[in-house]
Amino acid sequence: MFKRRKNRQPHHHLREAFWPSIGFRRSAHYLGHRVGRLPGTPFSIAAGFAFGAAISFTPLIGFHILVSGALAWLCGASIVAAAIGTVVGNPWTFPIIWAWIYSLGVWLLGMEPLQLNYELLSLGFLYDHFWDIFIPMMVGGIPTAALAWVVFYFPLKATVAKYQLARRRRRERKMKALKSAGDDAGAAA
User: Fold this and answer.
1) Hey, which end of the chain has fewer CB within 10 Å, N or C?
2) Residue 41's CB: how many other CB atoms inside 10 A?
3) Containing domain of residue 68, as a range?
């Protein structure tokens, strides 16, 4: 009933990841509703999302969902919220995140940064200098991830609690209205 007439091709999904057809604002609004409606306490939802967002600030590309899910499971947080939280790391934010964590890692380690010639930058260069890039990124990513966890957790916990309270009150008002309408119909009969 709610299926598409024509299934989307893989390139459509890729395009949607880079540029949502419904717009960035509406996409973020939809994501907010999805997070607010997740089952669980405000703690579990906020902590799960914060783990996902925090892991996005590490160079563990390809393992973000697994690592954030494992951390969420260990802390009793929502694994689904953790998976949704990894959306913080996306094609638009990764270049900024990677530049920041590399610079911070180089600074913390007291290293000399690699001199990158963007014309010669290739997968072969990254493969040859993997540890020279990965170690500073990991060292810079850990404190950044801890800060990101705090930045996402506290506001999101308050927001989810407020969202769930408003949703509960709407349901109670609706049930009260249905009950009074049923009582009125029963009295009229």
Assistant:
1) N
2) 15
3) 39-183
